[in-house]
């Protein structure tokens, strides 16, 4: 099943990630004690992560790195860089900060003197 069917909320995403980490650990025949030691976290903390309970991002990264998932974590997030072919067709430089587009009010606030009878 695609992840989107499981992860419509952050809580559901935590549960799915914990479950996947546990299955991966088991498929590699690694005990919770061994993984907790390799990750530099407590056994109880690892059990909470695998149960999908809230934890810190640092804890998640430690477990991911101990399971040799660093590249997979980075690969899950697009770089946001312009592809070379797009760079050739663009005349402007790559964005360095975001700037919201100005909103065009469809129904501007009416003021005295703006009406058709004035």
Task: Please tell me about this protein's structure.
This protein has seven helices and no strands. The longest helix has 18 residues, at 10-27. It is 51% helix and 0% strand. The protein has 118 residues and is mainly alpha-helical. It has a domain at 10-75: 434 Repressor (Amino-terminal Domain), CATH 1.10.260.40. Helix 3 packs across helix 4 and helix 3 packs across helix 5.
Number of strands: 0
Strand content: under 5%
Give the overall form. elongated
For this structure, what is the CATH homologous superfamily of the domain at 10-75? Answer: lambda repressor-like DNA-binding domains
Helix count from the secondary structure assignment:
7
H/E element sequence: HHHHHHH
Largest sheet: none
Helical/strand content category: mainly alpha
Mean pLDDT: 84
CATH C-level of the domain at 10-75: Mainly Alpha
Low-confidence stretches: none
Q: N- to C-terminal separation?
A: 63 Å
Helicity level: 40-55%
Radius of gyration, in Å, reads 24 Å
The fold-level CATH name of the domain at 10-75 is 434 Repressor (Amino-terminal Domain)
CATH architectural type of the domain at 10-75:
Orthogonal Bundle
Summarize, please.
The protein is an all-alpha fold.
Features of the shown structure:
7 helices; mainly alpha; 434 Repressor (Amino-terminal Domain); 118 residues
Helix/strand layout:
Layout: H1 3-6, H2 10-27, H3 32-39, H4 43-50, H5 57-66, H6 70-75, H7 84-89
Helix pairs in contact: 3-4, 3-5
